[in-house]
Amino acid sequence: MRFQDRIKGLFQYFLQGLIILAPIVITIWAVTSLFNFIDRILPDLLENFFPQLSSYYVPGLGLILAVIIIFFVGYISSSFLVGKVVDLFDGLLQKTPGIKIIYSTVKDFFEAFAGNKRKFDKAVLVSIEANDVWRVGFITQQDLNEFGLSEYVAVYVPQSYAFAGHLYFVKPERIKKIPDVGAADAMKFAISGGVTTLDDEVNTK
Question: What are the two backbone dihedrals, phi and then psi, of residue 89, each rounded to the nearest 5 degrees?
Fold first, then answer.
């Protein structure tokens, strides 16, 4: 076997190992980083007020407490009195200069994915540059009268390999519905650059 063939074979082995290990390592790193970030939020806050508690830190306890607090807030927010307090506090933050931009943006972002005002649940194909070129997008607003565009709809188009995207105002005739693909699968397909496969039940329809 020639030296170049050996090098080529070793390089193929390297690429195969990279394909196997990279998704595993990156996934573990992302999950671990997210876990550590959430797990340290409450302990860091407590240490600022009670420095003596730093020696009592238990890995995982901060995450458990954060989950309990989230469930507790979600539970009590359904009551009338607490709901009024939350609405009052929400209105205060929405009207505070500077803070309202950050607060309203973060709030709308979470509600778009998981709240009652879920926006990314209408996957479509949208033609932007040319009539025969289509992109995966999501209708976020169908009433644009405030912008003076009564005949347009707002479509968010995600970018591949990024949690970013672009917002376009287009006419309905430049949009095609995707009846056999769910919103989650469409988002995954767009972010992956089209390399991921759709669910089997979608492909068999």
Answer: -65, -40
d(CA 135, CA 124): 8
The structure tokens listed for 116 are 């009652």
Do residues 136 and 167 touch, judged by C-beta distance below 8 A? no
96 contact partners, CB below 8 Å, separation of at least 6: 103
Q: CB of 153 within 8 A of CB of 142?
A: yes
Q: Flag whether the pTM goes above 0.70.
A: no
Q: Is residue 132 helix, strand or coil?
A: coil
Q: How far apart are CA 83 and CA 100, in angstroms?
A: 20
How do the pLDDT tens digits run along the chain, 205 residues long? Answer: 677 777 888 888 888 888 888 878 888 888 888 888 888 887 777 777 777 666 667 778 778 888 888 888 878 877 778 778 878 888 888 788 878 788 877 776 666 656 555 666 778 899 988 778 899 888 888 888 888 888 899 998 888 877 678 889 989 888 988 877 877 788 888 888 887 777 644 444 4
Q: Determine contact, residues 174/126, Cβ cutoff 8 Å.
A: yes
Beta strand extents in 3-147 (DSSP E only): 123-126, 135-141
